[in-house]
Amino acid sequence: MATAVLTISSKNYSSWSMRGWLLCRMAGLEFEEEVMSSDDPSTRAELLLLSPSFLVPCLRHKDVKVWDTLAIAEYLAEIAPKAGILPADRAARAHCRAVAGEMHSGFHNLRSALPTNLKAHFPGFNVWAGAQADVDRVVAIWRECLAAYGGPYLFGGLSLADAMYAPVATRFLTYDVKLDPESAGYCETIMSWPAMMEWVAAAQLEPDELEELDVEF
Ligand SMILES: N[C@@H](CCC(=O)N[C@@H](CS)C(=O)NCC(=O)O)C(=O)O
Fold first, then answer.
1. 69 C-beta closer than 6 A to ligand 1
2. Which residues pair with 32 in a beta bridge?
3. Which residue is closest in CA terms to ligand 1's atom 1?
4. Does ligand 1 lie within 6 Å of residue 68's CB atom?
5. DSSP letter (8 states) at residue 153
6. Is the dihedral angle over the CA atoms 65, 10, 198, 70 positive or is it negative?
7. Residues in CB range of 125: below 8 A, 6 or more apart
8. Using a 6 Å cutoff on CB, does residue 117 contact ligand 1?
């Protein structure tokens, strides 16, 4: 078995899988992907063994097993301290953890009203007011970070924050969310990040829409 294995699910639908995978790439970790299809009962049983939370992503590295995206990020930042997953400056690092935490525990309206679906495109999609408040908060975070650290990524170079917000950039594109030029530019930056391009290309190759997954996932 490879030294590192990342368990993920759908590349088209699973935003948390995307975040974990992007973080492993950011860390420069050599890892194997283990892709679990979560609708098959035997796969679910296996997933439960691999990830006690029953959720993906889950990283196994040497004798360490870590699940939950933020825990994976902290672990990767420890084994690859030079990768910049957490900014070097203490104040920026605290800010980065704060915006990553906000994504991890919040934005429920955005997540349920605009589920991740990389292959889909809904021009003119009507974002309801509750989700629009989340969109506005995301955009405020992005604009503040881009102004404070000078871009092109949220904290200058790539960091945990970009992995956390990458699936939000894809949602904005999927649902044709109207954005100011700085935020639209940041979405483009994320979509041209080579690791992201690789993920999106793989998502395009996945079998077509699973209707029951067109919900928060
Ligand atoms: N807070 C968790 C969220 C993980 C999560 O919700 N993962 C979803 C996929 S995106 C999942 O595994 N859902 C259960 C399933 O698909 O069976 C994290 O940070 O990793």
1. yes
2. 5
3. 68
4. yes
5. B
6. negative
7. 114, 175, 176, 177
8. no
Ligand 1 atom 11, closest CA: 55
From ligand 1's centre to the CA of 38, what distance in Å?
A: 10
Instruction: List the chain pLDDT tens, one digit each, 217 residues.
Output: 679 999 999 999 999 999 999 999 999 999 999 998 766 667 767 767 777 777 899 999 999 999 999 999 999 999 999 999 999 999 999 999 999 999 999 999 999 999 999 999 999 999 999 999 999 999 999 999 999 999 999 999 999 999 999 999 999 999 999 999 999 999 999 999 999 999 999 999 998 655 545 544 4
Neighbouring CB atoms inside 10 A of 82's CB total 9
The tokens of 72 are what? 């994976």
Q: Which atom of ligand 1 is nearest to the CA of 71?
A: 19
Q: Which of 55, 104, 213 gets mutated to test ligand 1 (max ligand atoms within 8 A of its CB)?
A: 55
Residue written as tokens 């098959």? 40
> Strand, helix or coil at 109?
helix
- Separation of alpha carbons 172 and 197, rounded Å: 16
